[in-house]
C-alpha cells in the first residue's frame, strides 16, 4: 500500500478526503502525519496527540462490498488493531469498546474515525482514521482514560516499524470480510469490551444495570437490562459508566 507521509496537517482524515476529491484514484493508500493541528475525534471531539509521539493516520479504501455491510469494515479494522496490539505488547487484555475504541483493561489506547462516502448501495470510498497512542506518556486534554503502549510496556517504539505491522494486520482482517465473514463476526463478538458482564450504563437517559450481548447487522449495540428486555442502542443512546 502506498504511504503518503506528512510532517504536519490539519487532520489526516480531512487531508485524505481532499486528496480523493482531487485525484479520484481508486487505489488504497495511507496518509500518515507526525502532527495534526486539528485532529478529529468522534462527534465534536478533538484528538490529542503530541508531535512525533504517536501514530495518526488515515487509510483510504474502496470497499467492494455492499454499503449496508459497512459495519463489517468497522469490525475488521478493530480486529486488525487489536490483534496487532496483542502480539506487539504480548498481553491479552485488549478489547474493542463499541463502536470505535480499542481498550487495554479500562483505558483507551486507540480511537477510530471512519468516514464513508456511499453511492446508492455501494461504497464510493471509506477513509479510516486511526489514532494510536504509542510513545506519549502525558495527556493534557480532559479525555477520561488515555493510555499508550509505552505507558504499559515501558518500551519506546519505532513508529515506522509499528505502522508497517499494523497495516499488515488490518489488511489481513479487511480481506476476511469477503472471504470469511463468519470468522470476522465471531471474533468481533468475542473481543467486545464488557461482553456479558453486568455494569451500570446510562441508556436513553436513565442509569441502569445491564450487559452487552452483542451487536446487530447495522452495528447497533444489543444490551440486556436487569429489568429483562434486550434494548437496541445507537451511539448517542448509551453511555458506559466507568
Ligand atoms: C475517537 O476516538 O473519537 C476517534 C479518534 C480518531 C483519531 C484519528 S487520528 C488520525 C485520523 N485523523 C483525524 O483527524 N482523526 C483520526
Give me a quick take on this structure.
With 242 residues, the chain is α+β, with helices and mostly antiparallel strands.
How is this structure best described in words?
- By secondary structure, the chain is of the alpha+beta class.
- The chain is built from 5 helices and 12 strands.
- The chain has 2 domains: 2-191, BirA Bifunctional Protein, domain 2 (2-Layer Sandwich); 198-240.
- Helix 2 packs across helix 5 (181-191).
- The chain is globular, with a radius of gyration of 18 Å.
- It has a 7-stranded mixed sheet with strand order 1-2-3-7-6-5-4, sandwiched between helices. The protein has a 5-stranded antiparallel sheet with strand order 11-10-9-8-12, with no helix packed on it.
- The chain binds biotin.
- The site of biotin has 21 residues, from helix 1, strand 3, strand 6 and strand 7.
- Biotin is lined by residues 11-13, 36, 39-42, 45, 47, 56-58, 100-101, 111-113, 129-131.
Attribute tags:
alpha+beta; 242 residues; 2 domains; 29% helix; five-stranded antiparallel β-sheet; binds biotin; BirA Bifunctional Protein, domain 2; seven-stranded mixed β-sheet
CATH architecture of the largest domain: 2-Layer Sandwich
The secondary-structure element order is: EHEEHEEEEHHHEEEEE
Biggest sheet statistics: 7 strands, mixed
Termini Cα gap = 38 Å
CATH class descriptor name of the largest domain: Alpha Beta
Computed Rg: 18 Å
**Helical/strand content category:** alpha+beta
Rounded average pLDDT: 95
Strand order across the largest sheet: 1-2-3-7-6-5-4
| Number of distinct helices | 5
Bound molecules: biotin
CATH topology of the largest domain: BirA Bifunctional Protein, domain 2
Residue share in helices? 25-40%
Q: What form results from the Cα inertia axes?
A: globular
The strand count comes to 12
CATH superfamily of the largest domain: Bira Bifunctional Protein, Domain 2
Poorly predicted segments: none
Q: Domain count, please report it.
A: 2
Strand content: 25-35%
Amino acid at each position: 500500500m502506498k504511504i503518503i507521509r506528512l510532517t504536519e496537517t490539519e487532520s489526516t482524515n480531512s487531508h485524505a478526503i481532499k486528496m480523493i476529491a482531487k485525484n479520484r484514484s481508486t487505489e488504497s493508500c495511507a496518509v500518515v502525519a507526525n502532527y495534526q493541528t486539528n485532529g478529529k475525534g468522534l462527534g465534536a471531539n478533538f484528538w490529542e496527540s503530541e508531535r512525533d509521539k504517536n501514530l495518526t493516520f488515515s487509510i483510504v479504501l474502496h470497499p467492494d462490498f455492499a454499503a449496508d455491510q459497512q459495519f463489517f469494515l468497522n469490525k475488521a479494522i478493530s480486529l486488525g488493531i487489536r490483534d496487532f496490539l496483542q502480539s506487539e505488547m504480548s498481553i491479552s487484555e485488549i478489547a474493542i469498546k463499541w463502536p470505535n475504541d480499542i481498550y487495554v483493561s479500562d483505558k483507551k489506547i486507540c480511537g477510530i474515525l471512519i468516514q464513508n462516502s456511499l453511492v446508492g448501495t455501494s461504497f464510493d470510498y471509506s477513509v479510516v482514521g486511526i489514532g494510536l497512542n504509542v510513545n506519549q506518556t502525558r495527556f493534557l486534554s480532559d479525555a477520561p482514560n488515555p493510555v499508550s503502549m509505552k505507558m504499559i510496556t515501558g518500551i519506546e517504539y519505532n513508529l515506522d516499524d509499528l505502522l508497517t505491522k499494523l497495516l499488515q494486520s488490518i489488511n489481513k482482517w479487511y480481506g476476511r470480510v469477503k472471504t470469511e465473514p463468519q470468522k470476522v463476526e465471531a471474533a468481533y463478538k468475542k473481543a467486545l469490551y464488557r461482553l456479558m458482564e453486568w455494569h451500570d450504563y446510562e441508556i436513553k437517559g436513565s442509569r441502569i444495570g445491564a450487559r452487552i450481548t452483542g451487536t446487530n447487522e447495522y452495528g447497533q449495540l444489543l444490551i440486556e437490562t436487569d429489568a429483562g428486555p434486550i434494548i437496541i442502542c445507537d451511539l448517542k443512546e448509551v453511555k458506559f459508566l466507568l
